[in-house]
TrEMBL record:
Xref: SUPFAM superfamilies: Acyl-CoA N-acyltransferases (Nat) (SSF55729)
InterPro entries reported for this sequence: Acyl_CoA_acyltransferase (IPR016181), BioF2-like_GNAT_dom (IPR038740), PEP-CTERM_FemAB-rel (IPR017469), PG_Glycine_Bridge_Synth (IPR050644)
Pfam families: Acetyltransf_6 (PF13480)
Domain BioF2-like acetyltransferase: 161-295
Protein name per Swiss-Prot or TrEMBL: FemAB
TM region positions: none
Amino acid sequence: MNVPVSLSLKIELVDLADAKSRLLVDDFVKEMGASLFHRTPWLLAVERATGQRASGFVAQQLGVVRGWLPLTEVRSFLFGKALVSSGFGVGGGICAESPEAANALARAAQDYATQHGFGSVELRGGDVPEGWQAVTDKHCEFERALAADDDAELLAIPRKSRAEVRKGLNNGLTLAIGSTDNDLAMHYAAYSESVRNLGTPVFPKALFREMLSAFPRESDILTILRDGKPLASVLSFYHNGAVLPFWGGGSFAARGARANELMYYELMLHARKCGMERFDFGRSKVGSGPAKYKKNWGFEPQPLTYATWTPEGVEARDVDPTSEAYARKIELWKKLPLPIANTLGPFISRGLA
């Protein structure tokens, strides 16, 4: 699909099955210093794990890439159809060198959504295109520099949270870091219990497996254990000098053992040894418990801007777990036995990209 924009700028729908096209896009993403979620391995890992098609539009000028819009084509019987930039990510909006390229990419996404029956287009980050609805008050991101050494890292944590980390250090817990099948099994055991306790359907285990495969040198799993049993575990990525603890959680027993606190502290130490300079604590809902937890660790919230476009007369899909529409469902989900939640969850969560 070619969408002529001017004599020199054109927009193309990228074929991500083509290695040359992927290379062009990923070289541009690297040059621009764009997010992990702009990279084609991320999109393709989502597609392989969930069946949600990876696509995107590229803006080219005289054969040179000037802009990129990654897209996951989400199709869900529960949540409808949407183009999401980028699926299962917290970033991935339009990445462009000029307003002309950015606007052309936005128009291409609108046209594609209209032609193929997608109810909305969602951009997670980047500039807000003209005529789109900006969302600025729902999410914040948290990031700070890593300290120079282990002792300084501990002292950089505010007093109350530092005391919790010290308790974890004194509880005789052990640490495992890797990306083997056993690491993945331990991670899923801790993570799935954590999200069930929050009332959220767990993502497919295949999503985590595919991400580890897609980023073999830029991802791993860190797990905190007691007597060989996983208490808390986090799957992290390493990108542009920052560690991103992306999917993490702990069992109910992790609380008393301070395993979550120890997990993040140990990840900070591990990330610095891997050459990282920053700790990207990810996004959280404004005013939520996780947001307060991150502030207590000394991270200052920075507002995130998302954007949504819908055809005239169509309402954007609602996948906000804090929405009143989901309050009762969340409370019911918390009560499900873990095996049932882990069986049903992946079928539902595929549509939450």
